[in-house]
Design goal:
The chain is built from 15 helices and three strands. With 449 residues, the chain is an all-alpha fold. It holds the Pfam family Tmp39.
Length: 449
């Protein structure tokens, strides 16, 4: 049975293609973005008497990099940046007539260190390719167990190579440098505990398989779904789950971006010989650009437009309360009711006024307030990230224009090449999300008028 929110409504004059898509809200379900299954018709009839439930405009299809392609791009980006850092440190003057070097690099790098960094950077790419092959030949029933087996095999392979490299590095470098190599691994245990999955896979499942089947809050690929519920308790539970999923994704973004910058940028400097002179200024900025570039790449992949649209839809159902000082009210807030716009309630001896058409949030709850403020209009998030990325590219262009050495120009041009690709994705997501949510506001204003 179709949810009442998804019945066809009379449409206003078309504003753009996003408004025309209102008549096809069922398209969301086919693309795994919504779970409006219509099992709340009774509660809907009660809530509809006092509240105007929000209507959602579907986000158009946006091409997104697959997991294998994304991991390949990340591996290529980090490997190129690592090679450029070695170039900054071990560059040679091979063009001089009396130079003893025939190559651009004065090769004096421990081969075990290179193998160590390479295995660390390629671990997720290898795991993702093996997982895609396994999913093609293993049934969906046996896949969870097979996935754990693959993770354990990958952990054994990576662990054995790391131990072998550490053993050989120990004979040629001070013991303290071994702690530099192992420091990020200790940070991993602080963030993720003893779980093996997050080390190889960006997808983090926050609930058990039984909860996934009972709540139907995850799609087939692990992305959360939105349930257009009229139950305030269910809306708040959905917010709690989505908040947990956001935190897990942000931990992955922060850890992996720092992890990549540490091993591809800092470790080459850390293991440079004491007699080797290199420009600390350029090496430091190279680490900074590597970290920022990795951070934005991970951010755009883990938080695509459709994912943020799920948060936006939930935020519209959640609503927000504003604290009042002067008015007086004897109506106490209850958690089993959807409160309409401009309702004034008392909660813990404080007065609040509803700011949204539907309000299921708890008055004064900072988690609910932050969730609504962030995802009321997700295009603002993309605007902030896009602005920061533009500023970073402008600074890099200034450094490229003022570069006086050949290796400086090569390093900046290579980093800018990857940043232009991220800039295109950010601009595309910003424009699409802005047009969709602008159309949503226009439709809402016309219905209210």
């Amino acid at each position: 049975m179709q949810h009442p929110l998804h019945l066809h409504h009379p449409q206003p004059a078309p504003v753009h293609q996003g408004v025309h898509a209102i008549a096809h809200v069922n398209h969301n379900v086919r693309h795994g973005r919504s779970n409006c299954n219509g099992d709340n018709s009774h509660s809907y009839s009660q809530a509809a008497q006092n509240t105007a439930l929000p209507k959602h405009i579907p986000v158009p299809y946006i091409p997104r990099d697959g997991d294998v392609l994304f991991e390949f791009i990340m591996f290529l980006f980090t490997v190129v940046c690592c090679a450029l850092q070695f170039l900054i440190i071990y560059r040679s003057i091979f063009w001089l007539p009396y130079s003893f070097n025939e190559f651009a690099l004065n090769v004096d790098v421990d081969i075990h260190l290179i193998v160590f960094i390479g295995v660390i950077l390629m671990r997720r790419l290898v795991y993702t390719m093996v997982s895609r092959v396994g999913q093609a030949y293993v049934s969906s029933v046996l896949w969870p167990a097979a996935q754990r087996v693959i993770q354990l095999i990958m952990l054994g392979w990576v662990g054995s190579v790391i131990l072998f490299c550490l053993y050989n590095i120990m004979h040629t470098h001070p013991i303290v440098k071994l702690f530099y190599l192992c420091y990020p691994l200790s940070l991993y245990f602080i963030l993720f505990g003893l779980r093996v999955g997050p080390f190889f896979d960006l997808t983090v499942f926050s609930v058990s398989e039984s909860e996934q089947q009972s709540k139907s809050i995850l799609s087939f690929d692990g992305s959360p779904l939105h349930n257009c519920s009229t139950s305030p308790e269910a809306i708040r539970e959905e917010v709690d789950f989505l908040k947990s999923d956001i935190n897990n994704r942000m931990k992955q973004v922060l850890f992996n971006s720092v992890f990549s910058a540490y091993y591809a940028g800092f470790i080459p400097c850390c293991f440079a010989t004491t007699l080797m002179y290199y420009e600390t200024y350029w090496a430091t900025f190279h680490i900074l650009w590597l970290w920022l570039g990795s951070f934005v790449l991970y951010l755009t992949h883990c938080f695509p437009v459709r994912y943020c649209d799920v948060m936006h839809r939930c935020a519209l159902h959640l609503g927000r309360w504003h604290r009042l000082i002067m008015p007086h009210s004897n109506v106490h807030w209850t958690g089993n009711k959807l409160w309409p716009f401009e309702s004034v309630v008392k909660h813990y001896d404080k007065l609040y006024q509803a700011l949204s058409s539907t309000n299921a949030a708890e008055p004064g709850n900072p988690v609910h307030n932050r969730f609504y403020d962030l995802f009321q209009n997700p295009s603002r998030i993309y605007l902030v990230v896009f602005t920061m990325h533009i500023l970073m590219i402008l600074v890099q262009l200034m450094q490229l224009a003022t570069a006086s050495e050949w290796y400086q120009a090569i390093s900046m041009a290579s980093v800018l090449f990857f940043n232009y690709y991220t800039l295109y994705k950010l601009l595309r997501d910003l424009l699409i999300s802005h047009r969709v949510y602008k159309a949503e506001r226009i439709v809402k204003d016309r219905e209210n008028s």
